[in-house]
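Convert to structure. Protein one:
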Amino acid sequence: MKKLIILGIITLAHAVQAGYLEDGNSYYKNKNYQKAEQMYLKAIQENNIEGMTNLGQLYYKQGKYEEAEQMYLNAVQKGNTNALYNLAILYEDHNEAEQMYLNAVQKGNVDAIFNLGLLYFKQEKYNKAEQMFLKAIQKEDVEAMNNLGVLYRKQNKDDKAEQMFLKAIQKDYIPAMFNLGRLYIDQKKYNKAKKYLKMVIDLGNENNLVTKEAQEVYKKMIQAGY
């Protein structure tokens, strides 16, 4: 996904057939959008639903939101749940987003569960956000574990936050290591904090923003004598 975890990431539907759809996907990946559009249109002429969804994604990337919406709607009418999920993202800044995500959740779209949780979190509907993250966690969604930890931190439920971060860390999720380190700093448990910050530094990509932040915090702790 995902998963944005940033809201706004839309994954290209996988090709399920050879031919025009596969060619369109290849052109898309190589950023030859004109050729990709031509191939997707040919796939659509053959009643290929994934072609509609992927052409919607192409239009979305180009900022052609009305065209993207129409492609997604066409695909939704033919039963494509990925298009329903993408519509929700397209409608993110509108009241329609919640209902679109709910529809996608009911149709079994796992990514929609996570993103609906994010939407509720941004709207400060924390009880609803918690419910969605817990549902995503049942699907072993590690990002949901981390985000639920962040939500608990915001609610000053540090014990629950710690549990969620540790759960995500068991799956080697680096942002959770950083978040747990910051939690321990706030609790003045400096040795534990250094342990998890050091894990981020050792395991993370040195060019990653989280890793750089961990390096900075760790350095300041050492300088302060902790």
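Protein two, convert as well:
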Amino acid sequence: MLFCYAHKGNNGYASIVIKVPIKRLDADLPLPKYAKPGDAGCDLLASEQTVLEPGGGRGLISTGIAIALPEGYAAFIQPRSGLALKHGVTCLNTPGLIDSGYRGELKVLLVNTDPKEPFEVNRGERIAQLVIQKVEQAEFTITEDLSETERGDGGFGSTGVN
């Protein structure tokens, strides 16, 4: 089965298109789609209505779809920046990792960080983005010494704020 092919979009850039089988669990919702040519993330829609209470209220929101990623690929659920900026609503476990062997419904764990206002999730609303990426696996080998780098073991703010 062919899982990918090269495609030259309207913007003139060539890209690889991955064919991903999708199962509709909610036939009334549109399929995920990319808002603009060249976008990395496609929109996921809520297949249910719920209210996220203020101050950390969260909900596991169904999307009404399941996918079959080709082996060697993974998908990542990412927040929508507009929901975070305008309403304080984001994905709690970002990024949400979907391995190629998973065949269940895609769900999005949303949290309302607004301290006062509840947030109503409406059916059909864009609640997150799905990014599909090729992945590699590592073979770990035990060693006593690691190669030297300029950064070394500096982390968590070691490069400053400016």
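The chain has a mean pLDDT of 91. Residues 20-134 form a domain with the Deoxyuridine 5'-Triphosphate Nucleotidohydrolase; Chain A fold (CATH 2.70.40.10).
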